[in-house]
Amino acid sequence: MKIIVCIKQVPDTNEVTIDLETNTRIRTGIPVIINPDDKSGIEAALSLRAQIPGSTVTVISMGPPQAEGALREALGMGCDEAILISAKEFSGSDTLATSTIVSAALTKIGYDLIITGRQAIDGDTAQVGPQIAEHLGIPQVSYVQEIKPDGDSLVVLRQYEDRYHLLRVKLPCVLTAIKELAEPRYMTVSGTVAAQRKDLKLMGFNDLADLLDPKTIGLKGSPTRVVRSYTKEPKSQGALLIGLTTAEAVDAIMARMSENHLI
72 or 21: which carries more pLDDT confidence? Predict the structure, then answer.
């Protein structure tokens, strides 16, 4: 089985600040990590490789050259191959343009199973994985918590609000992983050394030009427009009720909720 894991290098959200003039994130000097859901997807792929003889795990990422760090980390975890999708023509792509570019790369690479994270912590759209499936015309299951191989299909447990769905999906398909899917392993010393020695494949615009319409990629090909970006407003400190009986505490809480039109 040829397993492809799509990952994104994201800023550590605890460190993010916004440029109020351009409405964009300030990324210079900000620590970066592999998106957590994507990392669970890597672990799930490595686990499937161990269960299915002859399987390989390739990790891909679309981003600037600095995204090599995330790919090297994935190699250090045990992935077989890493591919960076990067070109100036791809800059400014929203989720639709990104999924268009990644889908073209996947068509070139070939696949049996594609795993993405549910969503990236720097955008929280949860759109790219399902969009990839739509571009490729293959089945998809989102919010995946468990995967079991079954012949030419996978039996998948899908988390869904207050219940679960147990689904059988035929390969090839796209799965989007949640953090509960797998606990990511740490890089080993030997894996880290091997990762630095491995060649990293680069796919640029010219490699995908026969599958892409320039009008549908990059900033010009992105229908999304950011009107305003801002950091989350801090919450005010709550009121502390001390020395009340249970009945008095209930009355005080009910009164406060009434004042705020919650009841």
Answer: 72
